[in-house]
Amino acid sequence: MDDDLRVFRELILWLWQTHEKPWKYSHEVAKLIAEDILNYDRTFNSIEELESHLPSDRLVCGGFGNRYLYLNPVFEGRLMVPRIQIKYDFGRNIPEIRCRLEMFLVDDDINVKSLGYRFESPEGKNNQNAGVHHYYHIQMIQPPTCRIDWLPETQPAFPLDADNPVKLLLCVLVSLYGLDYLGTIIREAHNIWKLGDYAAGVPHTKFGPFKWYRLVEVGDPVRHIEGYKITSNINDFEEHTRRRYTGCGLKGITKSAFDALHDAEKKNYP
Question: From the CB of residue 148, how many other CB atoms can be counted at a distance below 10 Å?
């Protein structure tokens, strides 16, 4: 089985096994939302049913059809119930993945509202047949509970930090649950072959050391200026500096501006 296909399939099965089922939501608002939308939309009722709609050696092109996979509620801000619907074609030179993310919430009058986005792979069949959306991206979609005629569904298309179907799905999850959720996935889904490599390869998890440059201006009018290159915590530096120079002014400057200071004015902050 192709690596991307295999890990993509197993990650979706892990989501089924570890996320709350909509008919079992424990939070009252999530339960209210689920009761409303399950009246007219279908979900998967068993892991066997889900498996039959996932890519495999014998089925590289397909999707969820008219079914949805419900995920854990999102508790940051106003509570939301998310669900995904996926179409895929791993038989292409660049695998085609179209993941609809729909989110449901209630307004102040306890009416169920919705909004949604689609997470998609490059839309050209190959690099020679590229189009305006030939990159991993997100676009808005029509809300599932109503139609908004003026909604911009084509542009803007926001680029994603992904270069394969698994990272695309990981981006969906990070968008819902935050970057720390990658650590949860690595810990709890460790039995999925190579998943840790995919998660560790998501570029936005890697940041180099930050270097900051500050001018410290003392006195009014300014009688003394010092430039600092900061490689430690910026908050610690500013707190220390304000204690040392009561009432001082702090300005952020670029490296070139720092380098242009007279050597006698430069000091390194340990």
Answer: 11
The contacts of residue 180 (CB under 8 Å, 6+ apart) are none
Q: Are residues 116 and 219 in the same domain?
A: no
Mean pLDDT of the chain: 85
**pLDDT tens figures, 177-227:** 988 888 888 888 888 888 888 887 776 656 666 677 888 888 777 666 777
Same domain? 44 vs 165: yes
Q: In this structure, are residues 136 and 112 in contact, taking their beta carbons and an 8 Å threshold?
A: no
Is the same domain home to 190 and 264? Answer: no
CA 195, chain centre distance (Å): 17
pLDDT interval class at 270 (50, 70, 90): very low
Does 69 share its domain with 193?
A: yes
As given in the structure block, the two tokens for residue 6 are 């295999």
The pTM is what? 0.78
237 and 136 in one domain? Answer: no
Is 84 within 8 Å of 109 (Cβ atoms)? no
Of 152, 177, 205, which residue sits at a domain end?
A: 205
Asked whether 120 and 137 are in contact (CB, 8 A), the reply is yes
Query: What b-and-e string marks burial along 118-133, b requiring 16 or more CB atoms within 10 Å of the CB?
Result: bbbbbbbeeeeeeeeb
Instruction: Report, as an integer, the average pLDDT of 71-89.
Output: 94
Q: Which domain holds residue 222?
A: 212-268
Q: Is the dihedral of CA 141, 114, 87, 4 positive or negative?
A: positive
Q: Which two structure tokens, joined as six digits, stand for 123?
A: 């839309």
